[in-house]
């Protein structure tokens, strides 16, 4: 009975009309900021530098002997490695006595 109710609910939900998502209109008054114009001009330069200079430099720096020279540690499963290092570097504090309650304030 629950499966049938769920199937009917999913079928009805799939028939619901989608929300209309309109695009924002182009406003020429907001598009002429000097920094935006500079960014339009410099973005292709940055992409070319990234592709031709920084990617090969990173690749070279992650291989021996440069990896040892620069101190790069390659991690394959970053999330598990970070969690393991965090547990080793910050062990749990030893259990101690429970904290004392604050002294009671006299009521006026």
Secondary structure: helix percent: 40-55%
Largest sheet: none
Q: Tell me the span between the first and last alpha carbons.
A: 63 Å
**Uncertain parts:** none
Question: Please, what is the average pLDDT?
Answer: 79
Gyration radius (Cα, Å) is: 30 Å
Topology of this structure?
Elements: H1 2-14, H2 34-61, H3 66-70, H4 78-89
Summarize the structure.
The protein is an all-alpha fold and 108 residues long.
Your description of this structure?
This protein is mainly α and 108 residues long. It has a domain at 32-90. 54% of the residues lie in helices and 0% in strands. It has four helices and no strands. It has helices spanning 2-14, 34-61, 66-70, 78-89. The longest helix has 28 residues, at 34-61. The chain is extended, with a radius of gyration of 30 Å.
């Amino acid at each position: 009975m629950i499966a049938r109710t769920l199937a009917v609910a999913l079928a009805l939900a799939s028939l619901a009309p989608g929300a209309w998502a309109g695009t924002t209109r182009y406003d020429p008054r907001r598009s002429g900021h000097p920094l935006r114009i500079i960014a339009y001009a410099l973005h292709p330069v940055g992409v070319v530098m990234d592709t031709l200079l920084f990617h090969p430099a990173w690749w070279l720096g992650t291989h021996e002997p440069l990896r040892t020279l620069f101190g790069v540690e390659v991690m394959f499963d970053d999330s598990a490695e970070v969690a393991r290092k965090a547990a080793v570097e910050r062990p749990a504090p030893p259990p101690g006595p429970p904290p004392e309650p604050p002294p009671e304030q006299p009521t006026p």
